[in-house]
Amino acid sequence: MYLQYFGFREQPFTLTPNPEFLFLSAQHQEAFAHLLYAIDAKTGFIELTGEVGTGKTTIIRTLLKQFDSKTHSTALIFNPTLTALGLLQEINREFGLPYTSNSTRKLHEQLNNFLLAENSKERTVVLVIDEAQNLRPGVLEQVRLISNLETEREKLIQIVLVGQPELKKLLEKQNLRQLKQRITVRYHLNPMEENDVHAYIRHRIKVAADGREPVVFLPNAVRKIYKYSGGLPRLINGLCDRLLLTAFTEESMDVTPKMAKSAIKDITKEEGKYSFLKKLFKKKSM
Fold first, then answer.
1. Do 170 and 141 meet the contact criterion of CB atoms below 8 Å apart?
2. What is the pLDDT of residues 216-262, one digit of tens each?
3. Phi, psi (rounded to 5 degrees) for 54
4. Are 164 and 50 in contact (CB under 8 A)?
C-alpha cells in the first residue's frame, strides 16, 4: 500500500529472512566471523544460539549463499522433529544422495563415500541444522555419529547446530556430554544495541529504495522502537512496517515519536487481547 508513496521496490520490513537485507551489527559480524573461522579451520562442530528473532536464520542463509559450489557442498535442515533415521535420510537427500533406505548403516555408508569423494576434490562439506533445540537426544546422538566420519587429519563434515538458548540447556544433559565435548566453537547472538537499531532501520530502507532514504525515522522514535523491541530484529520489523503505513496515511515522510508511541500502544493492546483469548481457549479445551 505504501510502496509507491515512498518509492520502495519491495517492503523493507518483511518478517521472512532475506539475505539481501542482511545487516551486520557488531554482534552479527562477530557471529559471522566465528562461523567462517570454524568452517575454514574444519573444527567439526559449531554451535550458534540466540533468542527468537535475533537474526540467526538470516545469518545462516547468507553464510550458505556466499559459499562457492566449487569449494563447498552445503545442506540446510529445517525440520527438527525428525527421527534419527529421518534425519539421516533428510541429510542424504539434501546432498543429492540416495535417501529412501531404512537402513542407517547403508545411509551412513553412502554419506561417508560422498564425504570422502568431496574431500578428495578439496571441497568442504557443511551441514546446518536450524532450530536444533527441538531435536530429541536420540537424534542428536545420530548427529554425533555423523561427526565421527573423518580422515586421520581432519573432519569430513562441518556441522553447525543453530538454536534458541534451550539448545545450550539440552546439551548440558549427561547423556549428551560426548556431543557437547566435540563442539569447539560456540557463539551466542545477543539483541542489537540502540545505535545498531537506528542503523538497521536506515539500512533496510535504503536497500528497499535502491540506495535512497525516502522516509526518516526520527531519533526519539527510534528510541521508542528500541525500548519496545529490546533490539530484536523480528519485533523491529513488525513495528516499523506498521509505522510506514501510519506515515503513509498521514502523508508524512517522517516517522515521529508520536507515531511510534501510538503504534506500540496498539500492538501492546493486541498482544494482550491475543494472550487473553489464548488462555480462554486453553481453559475451554481442558
1. no
2. 999 999 999 999 999 999 899 999 999 999 999 999 999 999 999 99
3. -80, -10
4. yes
